[in-house]
């Protein structure tokens, strides 16, 4: 058993090259595990979001606070609430962030993943909920 305490790792500002708006993240897991899993605790201020991106392995998002907007390429954005979860398949182009009018917090569980960061999400894509 290995315990990862949230207080052991401070939040840091995310990279402005891969996010739009103000967000903070911290890594809760380590590379020392038998299966390479990274667990990130991510806080998005209202309007903040990732760029479009893909992962080489699956990514789970577990919504822990507020509302989080997610979108897979070719589909309209969807809003998730506290207690909801979503999984993105390997290679699936997507983005996620706070829904309009809310901050959003999630745990991102990346399983055997490398990330390819792509272009920023446009205001039109961000606002395109149907």
Would you write up a description of this structure?
Helix content is 3%, strand content 46%. With 130 residues, the protein is mainly beta. It has one domain: Jelly Rolls (Sandwich), CATH 2.60.120. Strands 1, 3, 4, 7, 8, 9, 10 and 11 form an eight-stranded antiparallel beta sheet that branches. A two-stranded antiparallel ribbon has the order 2-5. Strand 7 and strand 8 form a beta hairpin.
Write a brief structural summary.
The chain is mainly beta. The protein contains one helix and twelve strands, in the order ββββββββββββα. The longest helix has 4 residues, at 123-126.
Query: Which structural class do the helices and strands define?
Result: mainly beta
Number of domains: 1
Class in CATH?
Answer: Mainly Beta
Low-confidence stretches: none
Largest sheet: 8 strands, antiparallel
Per CATH, the superfamily is Jelly Rolls
Cα gyration radius (Å): 14 Å
Order of helices and strands: EEEEEEEEEEEEH
Q: What proportion of the residues form beta strands (DSSP E)? A: over 45%
Fold-level CATH name? Jelly Rolls
Task: Indicate the mean pLDDT.
Answer: 92
| Helical content band | under 10%
| Number of helical elements | 1
The count of DSSP E runs of length 2 or more, i.e. the number of strands, is 12
- For the termini, the CA-CA separation is 45 Å
Any guess at the CATH architecture? Sandwich
Shape: globular
């Amino acid at each position: 058993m290995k315990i990862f305490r949230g207080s052991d790792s401070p939040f840091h500002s995310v990279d402005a090259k891969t996010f739009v708006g103000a967000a903070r993240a911290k890594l809760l897991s380590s590379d020392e595990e038998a299966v390479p899993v990274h667990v990130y605790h991510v806080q998005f201020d209202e309007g903040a979001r990732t760029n479009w991106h893909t992962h080489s392995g699956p990514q789970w998002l577990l919504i822990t606070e507020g509302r989080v907007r997610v979108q897979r390429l070719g589909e309209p954005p969807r809003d998730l609430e506290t207690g909801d979860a979503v999984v993105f398949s390997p290679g699936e182009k997507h983005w996620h962030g706070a829904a309009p009018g809310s901050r959003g917090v999630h745990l991102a569980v990346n399983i055997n993943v490398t990330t390819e960061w792509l272009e920023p999400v446009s205001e039109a894509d961000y606002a395109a909920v149907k």
